[in-house]
Amino acid sequence: MEQLKTIGRELAMGSQGGFGQSKEFLDLVKSIGEARSKAEEDRIVLSEIEILKRRLLEPDVPKRKMKEYIIRLVYIEMLGHDASFGYIHAVKMTHDDNLLLKRTGYLAVTLFLNEDHDLIILIVNTIQKDLRSDNFLVVCAALNAICRLINEETIPAVLPQVVDLLNHQKEAVRKKAIMALHRFHRKSPSSVSHLISNFRKRLCDNDPGVMGATLCPLFDLISEDVTTYKDLVSSFVSILKQVTERRLPKSYDYHQMPAPFIQIKLLKIMALLGSGDKSASEIMYMVLGDLFRKCDSSTNIGNAILYECIRCISSILPSPKLLEAAADAISKFLKSDSHNLKYMGIDGLGRLIKISPDIAEQHQLAVIDCLEDPDDTLKRKTFELLYKMTKSSNVEVIVDRMIDYMISINDNHYKTEIASRCVELAEQFAPSNQWFIQTMNKVFEHAGDLVNIKVAHNLMRLIAEGFGEDDDDADSKLRLSAVESYLKIISEPKLPSLFLQVISWVLGEYGTADGKYSASYISGKLCDVADAYSSDETVKGYAVSALMKIYAFEIASGRKVDVLPECQSLIEELLASHSTDLQQRAYELQALLALDARAVESIIPLDASCEDIEVDKDLSFLNGYIQQAIESGAQPYISERERSGMFETSDYHSQDHHEVPSHALRFEAYELPKPSVPQQASTELVPVPEPSYYSEPHQPIPTSLVSERDSSEIKLRLDGVKQKWGRPNYQPTTSSSPNTSSISQQAPNGTATQHSDGGVGSSSSKPQSSYNSKKPEVDPEKQRLAASLFGGSSSSRSDRKSSSGGHKPGKGTANKPTTIPKENPTPVQPPPDLLDLGEPTATTVTTMDPFKELEGLLDSSSSQDGGGSTDVMGLYSDAAPVTTTTSVDSLLSELSDGSKGNSRTYQSQTSKGPNSKEALEKDALVRQMGVNPTSQNPTLFKDLLG
Amino acid sequence: MIHFVLLVSRQGKVRLTKWYSPYTQKERSKVIRELSGVILNRGPKLCNFVEWRGYKVVYKRYASLYFCMCIDQEDNELEVLEIIHHYVEILDRYFGSVCELDLIFNFHKAYYILDELLIAGELQESSKKTVARIISAQDQLVEAAKEEAGSISNIIAQATK
Predict the structure, then answer these.
(1) pLDDT reported for residue A779
(2) pTM of the full structure
(3) What CA–CA distance (Å, rounded) separates A45 from A50?
(4) DSSP SS3 for B56
(5) Which of A71, A637, A675, A946 is most buried as measured by Cβ atoms within 10 A of its Cβ?
(6) How many other C-beta atoms can be found within 10 angstroms of the C-beta atom of residue A596?
(7) Closest by Cβ to B101, choosing from A216, A340, A935
(8) Strand B118-119 with B14-19, pairing
(9) Residue A405's pLDDT is what?
(10) Which residues form the Clathrin/coatomer adaptor adaptin-like N-terminal domain (chain A) (predicted)?
(11) CA nearest to A881, candidates B77, B63, B12
(12) What does residue B70 show for φ and ψ, rounded to 5 degrees?
């Protein structure tokens, strides 16, 4: 039965103008669809690859068959397998004269090849030919391919033709030509820099589609250089005005909104042009005001425009009236039930808050709700907002929250980001040194392997240099508190490497500084570290250096040094280490122990990590020696650059630029032979082109052979295009790394030779804070949190500039005391995970039985008027088919989809009654039945489209 | 700019992929695996956006199919959501109430349509009518070619096999 349906479907497709695929292909697709596991799918694909390999090798494959093979290759590649064996056939197909085949060929190559693939060179010629075609569809296909395949190196080969196409009579071609130029601009801005006037001209194109497309390159150009486009401000404003007045053809309407995508693009451009420009901004006020009035905030697209307006307003010079309108729009977003709109609201708030800091206050409860929402995306956006509104009065609450969240997530990318934000905020606004150290410890402990090594170095520097004020007392207190907290943490198991490095360094530098701890105590701890992390050479290196410092300070102060037995055995072990670095450190330490106090003091002076070291980079002290050597007959040194000169091609692997690879080709046809030109040298150099398997009027010749010497004779006619072909003179920048490494070797206390790794601390104690409430209502706890977050928000953000030292509590209404806790906060139970808070709070979760909801849906389905647009988030309306033809089966499958998706939220609500059991059974049944539930239910999009 | 477009079924099967930024085959598989893991597990009612490796992924579910687009931090998510919907509307108009099956068997057509809508990761045409016109122009050529090949009989032969 199902098969019959499928066949019927195929027939229907055939009549729509599709080429019916062979049974074989349909079977492939079907069997993949029915595969129950990834392994099975892989098996099917692998056997398909074998089949195709064999088929493609057969002689005289009919073209129609070949086309299907290529589509099958596309399918294989889409499923994540390698189809590179067939790429060449796709390339061949682009050469075909039949547009249908050509189009398939182009589609396949654009999907297969990246712009730096070697085969592209074989397509450029075809593209050139197709750009000249009379059939605009051929030209369109070629332009599509250009946008994907042409790289910096091949731009000049097609550029003149693309520019000509800007005046093509078909608007579809003009539009694609514009987009192709836009792509060129992205790839290599210099290649199209002389064509900018063309973009301006196309802005006045008769066809709105072309005009809309032109906005893409203009946006990029303007974001690079605003000043040269100021004259266009009034044009953009008037275009936007015309669009909003519905002067564009009706076909550009989208959900009753006139050309919304063009409006959004224009707003983006205006935001750039109006930024910091009073007169430009004033021109825009009018139309922006109109937009706010006209925008329909009941549709998603209307909200998209509103949001873009908010962005525009926050970017241009502020106008009080517009700010008010924007604030209104934001509060509408925040009050909405849709998470999407809340998200946009939070984002908009973050933008507006820079201009008018008071705006956040009225939305504080909404913000807190978003912060506690189970939706991760929303939560992260809210953290971003909090990050933007942090100041010294609320830094503790915000950073504590961030750290709690950081601990709860697994996503390393975001963990890294939030960790670095915590560090940044802590450095800027720390109310006290103790708090700062504690916070850093927590960050390092939980994300130590993710934070940038610079953060660790910063922390060390901060502890070494103090807070920049001439208050030695405070600095030594800071160090003491760091040492104390580290000694407490150090025995915890499994600390991140980077954190251990920091600990070792600080203990070595300041462990014995104020005499509270004895040298043997500290060195015992350090030996423990080296012992416990014996596989981590970096940590060991830090530990040994720290030991060296401790003993050096002891010796220098004239005390008798007793090397602990475990330390002695550590040294002996390291003397035989495979790591030369560790070995050297061990030898140095051993040697140091034998020196007298005076020598030791000059090698490792006390607390000198911040002293500057002068390094003679020119090694001038060696001059005499060199002079002597030369006099006695040695060859003078010739720098590597001079030795290899510009002919050295192997050392420009610059990662940043797309350098011209050595296989650059010419794409022009041969020039007509001129009697006088031929030179012997060039004829020798140019090899007879190998007969290739396709016949084209022009053969590419490898310029790499011709380029240098003959480039003057064989001129590329590139009509004003910047020369891109020859090899640029890459001058290997003489790296200064030998110097720098030698500098770091000499750093007095030996910390600089380390490598990047993670590191971090512990202290699971968390200050009891006010936010571990669980009640859904706006309870006092929540309000307290709000107050502590927003309390001081009226005071200006300018106090951010005070770098970490000035711990002046905000003068706002902050409830949170900013006074420094005198001792470490008593360890308490960590507040519950933020995520846990979400579920009981989830006021959005309806307790409705999903089946009831389904019934309601069935009832209403006949009368539903295609209004999917009103309910952006509504899964049910999205997923539920509305047509009368839907069978019960498919509905169930939809339902089970839905209930499965919900299951996490529903679990707590649905009782253990028959319903949930039934749902589970049905879910299992449906999943057993179908590869894709939709196969029984062909018209699923109908509900959206009426 | 849009970095890639993904169509993934609820079961995590890939229905269509289009990459506007360079990714190697390996990276592609990894991206698909990672994203479908994230997106398929998100509940209803949540945001249609996911922050992912410094980018944002906007997705929308239609029946059992997820349409995902990866965009830059600075792009307008709501707009991209509407671009997805715009694409679906065009597909719907082309296939006549489209379903997942249409896209499974005619993925190349879905690609052609996408190529008329997006180019190099930017929206090139926002008028449904214009897109429909150019697609039908292309199809007429196909129609002509088909007559030549006499393939209608072919199709029927296949169907009745």
Answers:
(1) 64
(2) 0.65
(3) 9
(4) strand
(5) A71
(6) 9
(7) A935
(8) unpaired
(9) 86
(10) 60-594
(11) B63
(12) -100, 130
Whole-number pLDDT of residue B97: 84
| Contact flag B97-A939 (C-beta cutoff 8 Å) | yes
ipTM of this predicted complex?
Answer: 0.88
What gap in Å lies between CA A100 and CA A92, rounded to an integer? 14
The answer to whether residues A799 and A810 touch, using CB atoms and an 8 Å cutoff, is yes
Q: Phi/psi at B9 (nearest 5 deg)? A: -85, 170
Q: Between these two residues, B56 and A431, which has the higher pLDDT value?
A: B56
Backbone φ and ψ for B19, nearest 5 degrees, come out as -110, 120
Return the axis-axis angle of helices A453-465 and A472-489, rounded to nearest 10°: 130
What is the CB neighbour count within 10 angstroms for residue A870? 11
Q: What is the pLDDT of residues B6-29, one digit of tens each?
A: 999 888 888 899 999 888 888 888
Kind of pairing between the strands at B122-123 and B118-119: antiparallel
- Cβ atoms within 10 Å of A420's Cβ, excluding its own: 17
pLDDT band at B55; cut points 50, 70, 90 = very high
**Contact assignment for B82 to A254 by CB distance below 8 Å:** yes
Query: Among partner residues A147, A344, A375, which is closest to B120 by beta-carbon distance?
Result: A147
Instruction: Identify the residue whose tokens are 């530098």.
Output: A509
Concatenating the DSSP letter of every residue in A455-489 gives: HHHHHHHHHHHTTSSS-HHHHHHHHHHHHHHHHHH
Task: For tokens 């390159």, name the residue.
Answer: A217
Hunting for tokens 């005076």 — which residue is that? A598
Q: Taking CB atoms and an 8 Å cutoff, what residues of chain A touch B139?
A: 17
Helix, strand, or coil (residue A941) = coil
Residues 278-337 of A with CB under 8 A from B: 300-301, 303-304, 307-308, 311
Instruction: Give the pLDDT confidence score for residue B58 in this predicted structure.
Output: 93
Q: Which tokens sit at A830?
A: 């960590």
Gap from B69 CA to chain A (nearest CA, Å): 16
Whether B49 has its CB under 8 Å from any CB of chain A: the answer is yes
A7: nearest CB among B89, B127, B159: B159
Mind spelling out the 3-state secondary structure of A320-344? HHHHHHHHHHHHHHHHCCCHHHHHH
Whether B157 contacts chain A with CB within 8 A: no
State both tokens at B95: 């296939």
| B chain contacts of residue A98, beta-carbon cutoff 8 Å | 145
Residue B3 has pLDDT above 90, yes or no: yes
What are the structure tokens assigned to A489, written together? 């943490």
Would you give the distance in Å from CA A151 to the centre of its chain? 23
pLDDT at residue A374 in the model: 83
What domains, with CATH codes, occur in chain B?
2-126 (3.30.450.60)
A247 token code pair: 């002067």
* Smallest Cα distance from B90 to chain A, Å: 10
Which pLDDT score, from 0 to 100, does residue A778 have?
Answer: 56
- B contacts of A263 (beta carbons < 8 Å): none
DSSP H or E run through A403: helix A395-408
Q: Measure in Å the smallest separation between the Cα of B139 and chain A Cα atoms.
A: 6
Tokens of A142: 């070629």
> CB of A256 within 8 A of CB of A298?
no
Which stretches of chain A drop beneath a pLDDT of 50?
1-2, 4-5, 7-8, 10-19, 648-661, 677-776, 792-914, 919, 922-946
Task: Quote the pLDDT of residue A589.
Answer: 85
Residues 6+ apart with CB under 8 A from A409: A376, A415
- Give the number of other Cβ atoms within 10 Å of residue A743's Cβ: 15
Q: What is the DSSP letter of A665?
A: B
Is A800 in a helix, a strand, or coil?
Answer: helix
What's the confidence (pLDDT) of residue A681?
A: 44
| pLDDT value for B83 | 92
- Which of A100, A110, A339 faces B45 most closely, judged by CB atoms? A339
Quote the DSSP letter at residue A245.
Answer: T
Residue of A14, A147, A940 lying closest to B99 (CB–CB): A940
